Amino acid sequence: MSNREGEDLAEPLPAEWDLATLKTLDIRFYAMKISPPCCKIRFLLNYYKVPFTEVGGKKPESEYKKVPVLDIADRQINDSYVIVKNLAPILQGRPLTQQEVAIEHMLTFGVMLALEKATASSLRSLCGCAGLMGGGMGCALRCAAPCIVCCVAPRMLKDKEFKTIPEYSQALQSYLGGQQFFGGSEPSVTDASLYGTIAPFDAVDAPPAEMLLGDTSSPLRTWFDTMAVRSAGSKFV
């Protein structure tokens, strides 16, 4: 049983599943190392200390040809947006609120795309990504970086509509308000999802991440740095 990209599960995950149950199930995570949606789900699982087996690349013999894919027992969930929505009740004991769904949608189909395009347009950022990836693939990315900046980035995501990074920064600051976390006094699934997505861009000192988070006086930067401390040891790559 599976779902198409952007399509919710035809049959919800069992209502009796809670975090303790999830930790006992066989979970396989099909992913690419520095793919932002994969970093998001990897961090989310690690933050909530859910054991899983990661398999590099797409799921073999699956009709769904993208990553991430999450297999939980006999259930397959595709698309990071759908994965987060369906795991939220299990991980935090409640579903996402309407506002949290809006944030997750903006993150997946707006913020992430804007960061990816800006990063692909920067030689410095791509070389940083190559270092984070490491190995032969990282070396290949470093070699291909000039071509990506000149030839790929200008045509990248031309069929997608999204706002500028400063506009997303303002929107996220508005959602955060005067709270320490998007979840209030404690981090929520929304906090983990946001952090896991933004962290790889920040880790390579990509200018787009700095543009999104702002300097040390920015509430978003304060939130991000606090999440980094609270989630120490939870890997996103």
From TrEMBL:
Gene3D superfamilies: 1.20.1050.10, Glutaredoxin
Protein origin, superkingdom: Eukaryota
Domain GST N-terminal: 30-88
GO cellular component entries: mitochondrion
Pfam (any one): GST_N_3
Family matches, as InterPro entries: Glutathione-S-Trfase_C_sf, Glutathione_S-Trfase_N, Thioredoxin-like_sf
Descriptive protein name: GST N-terminal domain-containing protein
Organism encoding this protein: Alexandrium catenella (Red tide dinoflagellate)
Lineage, broadest ranks: Eukaryota, Sar, Alveolata, Dinophyceae, Gonyaulacales
